[in-house]
Amino acid sequence: AATHHHEWEISYQFKSPDCVRKLAVTINGQSPGPTIRATQGDTIVVRVNNSLLTENVAIHWHGIRQIGTPWADGTEGVTQCPILPGDAFTYTFAVDRPGTYMYHAHYGMQRSAGLYGMIIVAAAPGGPDAEPFAYDGEHAVLLNDWWHDSVYEQAAGLASVPMRWVGEPHSLLLNGRGRFNCSAVAAEGTCNATLPECDAPVFDVVPGKTYRFRIGSLTSLCALNFEIEGHPMTVVEADGHYVKPFVVNNLNIYSGETYSVLIKANQDPSRNYWLASNVVSRKPGTPTGTAILSYAAGGRSPPPTTPPTGPAWNDTMYRFQQSVATVAHPAHVEPPPPRAGRTLLLLNTQNKIDGRVRWALNNVSFKLPHTPYLVALKRGLLGAFDQRPPPETYEHQSYNIYDPPPNPNATSSDGLYRLAFGSVVDVVLQNANMLAANNSETHPWHLHGHDFWVLGYGIGRFDPAVHPASYNLKDPILKNTVAVHPYGWTALRFKADNPGVWAFHCHIEAHFFMGMGIVFEEGLERVAELPGEIMGCGKTKGGRH
Ligand code: C2O
Ligand code: CU
Fold first, then answer.
1. Does the beta carbon of 241 sit less than 6 angstroms from any atom of ligand 1?
2. Which atom of ligand 1 approaches the CA of 218 most closely?
3. What atom in ligand 1 is closest to the CA of residue 505?
4. CA 482 to ligand 2 center in whole angstroms
5. I need a surface site. Which of 296, 364, 445, 517 has the fewest CB within 10 A?
């Protein structure tokens, strides 16, 4: 197995990803950052130099389980102190499974400022994880949404009374590029439609060949629908796991998810076709994000058609059915343990604390402690966070998920859930109405340090006496991010077998910022000595502790 060394400098740069100039956080001057490529079993070493002048940083390797290296998870407040301006931090971790993964900042709302990229891990040739499908070429598409307001303005607005919501994004980006309508920009000289920086990305195909598209989403807010005009997609991978193939014209993808699809370049090769991303689940206020699928004869020119606008944004059942259709490939089924030792039933609500709008689980809104849990727990610093665990359930018999919360006030806590090492844990995420009537959003939940089996989905109130009987224990997909649909529930199961401290949160940047997350600890006594690098700054970091 090989070791891949990367030297990254994180800096502010003025960028125009959608032709509008804006301050971005970049890696070696780029946003998105460089794609990390490796083969299963390899080791990745990334030395991150923080050259941001006035801002901390931490980088999370999304979908990489960090077995034996919990301190490299890059979660500020959970696994490490942030990397201070002028400091450097070296992340070393193994990529033990093939598949499509991502990385992004995990500090404040910094991910939305442009610090993100893709990780592509090839299967070990001839090994048991070799792909159960064939293709002639491959492309990668990383989806995002983009605002012209800075993340500082966004965060300040979210924390204000009354809250100033971030609103719908100005643009949707594909591989960091979009196209804003310059005539809608007031300030002279800040929008330039002729910049090559905001040219649509072009994906070349040769007639008759089959292509794998790796698609990832790191949107700050939006659920997206992705399509390739005229080219049905066969879904073959989700979050690094092989899927029982199914064909879609429109792929729904939530923030934190990755998919691979296969397409055949079998359309009229005299023209080009659109790749399109559209907002779903929220009423769209953002134009379609586009790129070009190019058959050589079509050159670089835009397709002659208008870009597809996707399915109806509020067709929840359409998205629900695609979630249900995503199950394990028959030759790669890893059956889940038949039952769980513990079940957390987490009600997702929007609440208020001291007049501020927050998100809460079972009426408790999460706040990050100032001392990272991993360090606090290893050193026995019991005063570093609330030692009382958050609640495991809520009044599920009486709670009406279709009404706004009867008691809008929540409390906040930095307590965590301690799991018995090796135990099997079920989590049921129950969605509900928000503070305003007749509204429930889609929440993409992401678990660090593990993959979980997706046992079931429902719309309506989850009943612990009824619904577990309908769980899919035969061929559930393993994932690291899963959607909870409006007014719905999602049940997942995982094994607490990775020593460390792991975040579990809604991947909508604003929602996690407003408290929509929890933290698990398991097997702490098995965590090796912590590298001093994860704590403090400069020379105070010291050796191993
Ligand atoms: Cu990709 Cu904690 O997130
Ligand atoms: Cu959310």
1. no
2. 1
3. 2
4. 11
5. 296
pLDDT digits (tens, 9 = 90+) for 234-276: 999 999 999 999 999 999 999 999 999 999 999 999 999 999 9
For ligand 1, atom 1, which residue shows the shortest CA distance? 62
Q: Please tell me if the CB atom of residue 231 comes closer than 6 angstroms to any atom of ligand 1.
A: no
Are the beta carbons of 209 and 137 closer than 8 angstroms?
Answer: yes
Could you tell me the sign of the dihedral formed by the alpha carbons of 349, 162, 112, 49, in that order? negative
Q: What are phi and psi of 139, to 5 degrees?
A: -130, 160
CA distance 370 to 526: 24
State if residue 503 touches ligand 1 by the CB under 6 angstroms criterion: yes
What is d(CA 116, CA 112) in angstroms, rounded to the nearest whole number?
A: 8
Q: Is the CB of 58 under 6 A from ligand 1?
A: no
DSSP states of 512-544: HHTT-EEEEEE-GGGSPPPBGGGSSSGGGG-SB
Q: Is the separation of the CB atoms in 275 and 230 below 8 Å?
A: no
Q: What CA–CA distance (Å, rounded) separates 288 from 284?
A: 9
Atom of ligand 1 nearest to the CA of 75: 2
